[in-house]
Amino acid sequence: MIATAAPTLALSFIARDLHISAENANLVTTVFLLGYVTGPPLWGPGSELLGRKYISLFTIGVSAIFNAGQARAQNIGTLLIMRFLAGIFGCAPLSNVGGIIADIWDPVGAGHALGIIFSCSFLGPVLGPIIGG
Fold first, then answer.
1. Residue 45: which residues within 8 A CB-CB, separation 6 or more?
2. E strand or H helix at 131, and its extent?
3. 83-to-35, 96, 108 alpha-carbon distances in Å
4. How far is CA 127 from CA 25, 28, 74, 86, 95, in A?
5. How far apart are CA 111 and CA 102, in angstroms?
6. Ranges of H-type helices in the chain
7. How many CB atoms lie within 10 A of CB 109?
8. Cα–Cα distance between 64 and 84 in angstroms, integer?
9. Of 2, 1, 26, nearest to 12 (Cα)?
10. Measured CA distances, 9 to 25, 29, 86, 90, 110 (Å)
11. Residues 116, 110: Cα–Cα separation, whole Å
12. Which domain holds residue 98?
């Protein structure tokens, strides 16, 4: 979830460099979150059919490619498309983590693991602007 909030401090620079308004620069976060809610219906069932490992490795790799595309974007359209696609592929590990934990640990140990995982996911939006800044 760090990727959600990481560009927050850079929005004014994005607006200046891409010659857009500050309101339009906020679409960077909105479009990523739209991708983040679009992906789980694909990756949840996909992980059951193809395996969580393969879905996770594939989606992390593709998400990294789209994240690199964001860095190279020369206009707002390209940036928004890259953010949306990075959101679709970047959500797979978070949407499948419950199944991964259930595959690894017994129910007693899974509670501690899920607590750590979800604590980290809630810290992401807090730490994103700090790390991204």
1. none
2. helix 107-132
3. 8, 20, 37
4. 20, 17, 27, 19, 20
5. 10
6. 2-5, 11-18, 22-25, 27-38, 40-50, 52-72, 76-90, 92-104, 107-132
7. 11
8. 13
9. 26
10. 11, 11, 19, 21, 36
11. 10
12. 2-132
Give the separation between CA 110 and CA 18, rounded to whole angstroms: 46
Q: Which of 5, 22, 10, 30 is closest to 71 using CA atoms?
A: 10
Residue type, 79: L
Tens-digit pLDDT string for the chain (133 aa): 667 777 878 888 999 999 999 889 999 999 999 999 999 999 999 999 999 999 999 999 999 999 999 989 999 999 999 999 999 999 998 889 888 888 888 888 888 888 888 887 777 777 777 776 6
Read off the tokens for 50. 């193809």
| Domain count along the chain | 1
CATH code of 18's domain: 1.20.1250.20
